[in-house]
């Protein structure tokens, strides 16, 4: 089974993906984690990623897709992948579909965690006040949220038209969101 967890930053995608890894033995394909791992590996691809990131540029679709493709055999052996943070654009969604089709697979389900932007912003502000983590800075979060709404949210109709989109209220507790995901997966 190939699953996309979809939603803005801080919607809980990573939390739910980790739970699915533990309960269903799926492989989480987090682009952020893969970029950091590629750099740490010292591979040729990792060196390319490091150079791009050091220049403050965005990693190209070509690189991100190569990282995903490199991890697909592991996900296939485990029985499924959870795509977390990918795809972010229509071009990436189309490339993912083509890549999976070439392997005799497809995206089975896209779970959109529906959340309220204002509530997310408050959540991040509270987290920042407690942790002081730079990535929880409300100003940085607003930039990330705006980028999501401009670039990634347009994927909603793409997956809805394909009949693969299921929406779950992401504002509930971790357990209630998890129960909604489990229910959706149980119906597949």
From TrEMBL:
Residues engaged in binding AMP: 31, 36, 57-59, 85-88, 92, 133, 144
Renumbered residue ranges of the record's region NMP: 30-59
Annotated catalysed reactions: AMP + ATP = 2 ADP
Subcellular localization, as worded in the UniProt entry: Cytoplasm
EC category name: transferase
SUPFAM superfamilies in UniProt: P-loop containing nucleoside triphosphate hydrolases
Entry keyword Zinc: no
EC number: 2.7.4.3
Binding site for ATP: 10-15, 127, 172
Keywords, sorted A to Z: ATP-binding, Cytoplasm, Kinase, Nucleotide biosynthesis, Nucleotide-binding, Transferase
Matches recorded under InterPro entries: Adenylat/UMP-CMP_kin, Adenylat_kinase_CS, P-loop_NTPase
GO BP terms in the entry: AMP salvage
Nucleotide-binding keyword on record: yes
Domain notes per entry: Consists of three domains, a large central CORE domain and two small peripheral domains, NMPbind and LID, which undergo movements during catalysis. The LID domain closes over the site of phosphoryl transfer upon ATP binding. Assembling and dissambling the active center during each catalytic cycle provides an effective means to prevent ATP hydrolysis.
PANTHER family assigned to the protein according to its UniProt record, in alphabetical order: NUCLEOTIDE KINASE
Entry similarity comment: Belongs to the adenylate kinase family.
Protein name: Adenylate kinase
Species name: Phenylobacterium parvum
């Amino acid at each position: 089974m190939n699953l996309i967890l979809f939603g803005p930053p801080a919607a809980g995608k990573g939390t739910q993906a980790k739970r699915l890894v533990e309960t269903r033995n799926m492989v989480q394909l987090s682009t952020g984690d893969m970029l950091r791992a590629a750099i740490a590996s010292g591979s040729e691809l990792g060196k390319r990623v490091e150079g791009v990131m050091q220049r403050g540029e965005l990693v190209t679709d070509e690189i991100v897709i190569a990282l995903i493709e490199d991890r697909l055999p592991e996900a296939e052996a485990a029985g499924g992948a959870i795509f977390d943070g990918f795809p972010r654009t229509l071009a990436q969604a189309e490339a993912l579909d083509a890549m999976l089709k070439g392997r005799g697979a497809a995206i089975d389900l896209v779970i959109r965690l529906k959340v309220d932007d204002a509530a997310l912003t408050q959540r991040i502000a509270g987290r920042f006040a407690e942790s002081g983590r730079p990535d929880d800075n409300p100003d940085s979060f607003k930039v990330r949220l705006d980028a999501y709404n401009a670039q990634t949210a347009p994927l909603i109709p793409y997956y809805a038209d394909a009949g693969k989109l299921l929406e779950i209220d992401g504002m509930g507790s971790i357990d209630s969101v998890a129960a909604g995901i489990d229910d959706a997966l149980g119906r597949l």
